[in-house]
Amino acid sequence: MAPQTDIPVAANVLGTIGTVLWCIQLIPQIWYNWRQKKTDGLPGIMMFTWALSAAPFGVYAVVQNFSIALQVQPQAFCALSLISWCQILIYNHSFRPLRAALLAILFAALFAGLQALLILTLRGPYRHGVSYPIITVGIIAAILLAAGLIPPYFELWKRSGRVVGINFVFLSIDFLGAFFSLMALVAQREFDALGGVLYIVCLVLEAGIFASQAVFLVRSRKLRRSAKEMGVDFDEVEGAEKYVFPRPAKEAEAEEGKVGAVVVLDVEGGGGGAAVAESNTASGEERGNDKTNVTQEIREV
């Protein structure tokens, strides 16, 4: 398909709306991460893959001569994704803020350099009818964009469909941004199928996350009501274990096997001596009648 030469006003308006939404989409998620000081349930690979996908996505938009708004969009998307990725490194992987920031800047520079190189390399041949290189770049962008939305599904599987760590304001804005960007392509003189795939993939996978949370809310309504009546967190209610990761039951079993040992050294007189006391205690579960404590004390004088 030839590059776009005449961009209708409607395409520019819709593309601008999509760009504005995608320029602010991750701000609620970034704010949410900062307030929580944790990013459990938000995969780091998701944010990094999104940042990486912005490079071929940007190349495709520029070479195809999309509206200016759609050309700016991947750059904003990349920057926000890298910021969120930094937070995951800091909160979940104990990176120092400076180290995480330097890594993000390094990758931003690498992605920008790659994008500039590909634009300069592919623009000429594409204008002369050689289209397969830019189509390949577009396919790579679509694959990376889709791949970035797959890791959250593993998090959903761990928690039986419950969404944890992903802010729904962010997800809603992202969904609307993809929708308006898709409509911008529809409004162009000629619809770009591959560009449209980038947005359709995003819409479908994000709709799946919304649906998963909706199913969770229906299935857990009694547990959530019980938690509200008891005045406790949902995770603390009996029966909510399958919606929590890691499973509390497994942690309890790990605690059950712990054995304590106390060694006491006692020195008496000039010759000295040692007293050793060992205590083995069963797990904290009540087993009915008696709890048996066995203590052995050995003294040597």
What does this structure look like?
The protein is mainly α and 301 residues long. It is built from 11 helices and 2 strands, in the order H-H-H-H-H-H-H-H-H-H-H-E-E. The chain has a two-stranded antiparallel sheet with strand order 1-2. The radius of gyration is 28 Å and the shape is globular.
In a nutshell, what does this entry contain?
The chain is mainly alpha-helical and 301 residues long. The protein is built from eleven helices and two strands; from the N terminus they run H-H-H-H-H-H-H-H-H-H-H-E-E.
Oligomer: single chain
How much beta, percentage-wise?
A: under 5%
In total, the number of strands is: 2
In which order are the strands of the major sheet placed? Answer: 1-2
- Helical proportion, percent range: 55-70%
Shape summary: globular
The main sheet comes to:
2 strands, antiparallel
Query: What is the tally of helical segments?
Result: 11
Structural class category = mainly alpha
Q: What integer is the average pLDDT?
A: 81
Distance between the termini: 95 Å
SSE order in H/E notation? HHHHHHHHHHHEE
Task: Supply Rg.
Answer: 28 Å
Distinctive features:
64% helix; mainly alpha; globular; 11 helices; 301 residues; two-stranded antiparallel sheet; disordered C terminus
